[in-house]
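Many introductory courses stop at the sequence. We go one step further.
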Amino acid sequence: MRSRGALLSLSIFLCVFVLNSVQVQGNPNYRDALAKSILFFQGQRSGRLPSGAAQQMTWRSNSGLSDGLQAHVDLTGGYYDAGDNVKFNFPMAFATTMLSWGTLEYGKRMGPQLSDARAAIRWATDYLLKCARVTPGRLYVGVGDPNVDHKCWERPEDMDTVRTVYSVSQSNPGSDVAGETAAALAAASMVFRKVDPKYSKLLLSTAKEVMQFAMRYQGAYSDSLGSAVCPFYCSYSGYKDELLWGAAWLLRATNDVYYFNFLKSLGASDSTDIFSWDNKFAGAYVLLSRVKLHAYIPFLFH
């Protein structure tokens, strides 16, 4: 139930896949479904909202403007998780990765929804950049106390619950959330490569730094943060799949053999029967089949 926000990105990916694969006539109207799926993200926005056409959900207003204050940093922005007022970076980053993947694969078929998809991605990546860059050696991974928030039903504009800040570091690692954050930034860097090269380079350089952190200080963020993320978004599958997923996206974004060698060192897994915000093995293998170094991929399985 807590994965609604993350799983919506899968519906967008599948919706665009259908648009690319079949002739859409009459009902169901997949184009309308795509538009509404992307519009959902505007309803989940946290922070200071834009005006005019950039914010079609006019019943929403500014919220979470003091996020990060507890840690003396600016962590405004990003998305709330489903119907909650908590910002869980683990599923948020996965949703961003998947929305970017769908845009990369089928952007030419998205028509007027392409600009809205880019806006949805950028709203997330602007926040993820803050989380990764504001404090050296530390990655912020969430805002809001989920245990308190889930007992209090109120609009984000009216919330008066504590905005606790959570992070991972060298002494409290989180390779899973860091690997997913790196994947999101790397995938988004390709979305913006032609339309905003400067922003794309910032996304990619930050993705490399976050991935290096995930690789160097290995451990599950569930172990570091406990009840702040469990049982809501525990990393049940461990963190190896996020290391694979993050490195795969950086390999695709850079074609750097460094990531190929790291992928090879990880080996393979039999956990490929599902693909979700928690388990990325299947998605990583599909992604690896499409990178330019695909001829070397069989060596990963020895």
